[in-house]
Write a structure and sequence with these properties.
Blueprint (H helix, E strand, L loop, with lengths): L16 H11 L14 H21 L8 H50 L1 H6 L1
Keywords: Nucleus
Main location: nucleus
Protein name: FAM192A/Fyv6 N-terminal domain-containing protein
Length: 128
């Protein structure tokens, strides 16, 4: 007997149908051992578990104060704000220049048309 190894081998016992039915009645059916069928697809079960974990994670970190910005981040945000203001100023300058150009063209066209009308139709100018 000393020649035999010291570790024991565990053998799985055969379970009869009758023993399985008895186990179902006493403890109920279980999905883990195959005595019960899932009523939902595995995808839904896994998705539900993932959603629960995500909700727990979010709940843990929801009440944490936000991290303070470091120097690099504040510098980046300042540069971003300056570039946004510069862009808005450029857009406003372009709009003002286009408006001035339109006004000049409008007045030149208006006075040119007025002169043409005076020369070609002097009686219309007298009416108006």
């Amino acid at each position: 007997m000393e020649d035999e190894p010291s570790h024991s081998i565990k053998l799985v016992n055969f379970v009869s149908e009758q023993q399985l039915d008895e186990a179902k009645r006493t403890r109920g059916e279980r999905i883990e051992d195959g005595t019960a069928q899932r009523d939902r697809p595995l995808y839904e079960i896994l998705k539900e578990n993932k959603d629960k974990k995500d909700a727990e994670f979010n709940e843990r970190f929801k009440h944490r104060p936000p991290k303070a910005l470091d120097e690099d981040e504040t510098e980046f945000l300042d540069k971003l704000e300056m570039s946004r203001r510069e862009y808005e100023r450029q857009v406003a300058d372009e709009e003002a220049e286009q408006l001035r150009s339109f006004q000049v063209i409008f007045y030149l066209t208006f006075f040119t048309m007025k002169k043409v009308l005076k020369l070609n139709y002097p009686y219309l100018v007298a009416l108006g």
